[in-house]
Amino acid sequence: MSEGPALLTLDLGTSSCKASLWTGAGALLASDDEPYPTYHPHPDWAEQQAEDWWRAACAAARRCLAQRPEGAKGIAAIGLSSQREGVVPVARDGRPLGPCIIWMDRRSRQETDTLVREFGGAGLHDVTGMIPDPTFTATKLLWLKTHTPEALAAAAFLQPRDYLYFRLTGAFLTDYTLASRTMMFDLRARAWWMPMLDRLGIRQEQMPPLYASTEAPFRLEREGASALGLAAGVPVAVGAGDRPCEVLGAAVAGKRVMESTGTATNVSMVIQEVPTVLEVCPCSIHALPDRWLLEMGIITTASVLRWFRDLTGLSAREMGTLEAEAAKSPPGARGLIALPFFMGARSVRLNPDARGALVGLSLGHGRGDIARAIMEGVAFEVGACLRGLQGLGHAVEEVRVLGGGARSDLWCQIKADVLGLPLARPRHTEAASVGAALLAANAIGLIQDPEAASRDWNPVQVTFAPRPEAHQAYAAPARLFEDCFGTLAPLFSRLAAGQR
Fold it and tell me: 336 with 227, same domain?
């Protein structure tokens, strides 16, 4: 018996494309993913090839469709999600004119400083919602203007989801969630910010037209359909950036906060109006009408744990071994502090030169102590992010935990104990795909209220309650974490200079 109309979602993450198939009622039918490389030709550089995204999307989608008895029949819509802020210049025919400088690339520090001098840090934040940082697209385009000015002759500048949409439909577009993460967009006017475009030497027509995340204005064209193994004519929903999709897919609203840990960690909260004065927190447009996001970020988190795992000679399959060793280390990791700032610090610290550190090492420390210290260091920094949100007047009562890091019971319990808050893990921890499916379902009329539907599609499965004794035990290590960062901060610029 057929399960009715199905939705195909494609989520372009930092390391792979995840394809998923959903029923119109939110049941997961199949999923698959295909990795692609990130290139680091110089320290602080991080690039990807747009064609790698397309190859991965096609491979993952075909394998995903092959798991379904009906195969490619009955696909009602395609939903999209992707990493944000990265930019790839493309020709009029959509051909990439160079690699994508992805979000984690830090090469544009000087360009960031230049824009701060010219526009003012507070002015940039107030207009665009973004706190100036090399993460954001405007700084990357200024770097291109300085170092490869021919790239600015491109027909369009696309983020990863935008490129995928073009390959599927032949249309250039973007949505408000992605546009509002460029530092080139007027948050309140909901339009491209012309003073910034003029400074970068970019014409407005080089920026893609803007659509709402809940629209499906174009359909799958023959070339894209053939590559995916689908019939042409399937509506392709605009979708959104990965974080707004995660927030939607995890039913985050009210006093609930999302904490998503993968390559990086994002802490997000939904608000219903833009604050009159933006203080310490970036603010962007959410995927749903009349909603905005406050976001805090940690650039390297689970990627640090993977780095340590690889460094010690363990394979990906042996991550459980590392976690088992970390579980034997007590709260505080026997006096060891890990600073997880391997590619700079964001959010409450805003230091692109910050670097990682292990402080307090002795011959008595083992591999498990170091792994636990990394987990705790991330948890301490999540706590700093939550304090930043609370300082803006937003109470937090629950943390909805997502991403690959959410699969670790140990790490979830550490975070609950450090934060002193319950951590709720939903059925689908890769919630960007859930959000993309909800937006696609809404775009074609299968559901009317994505926010309400998300509660049914992705209910909580496990809750990690904070343990009072452990929470108390973490008070001193948390203070030591802050003191270590403050003590090392004057050295970071010198350390970073030696790595360029």
Answer: no
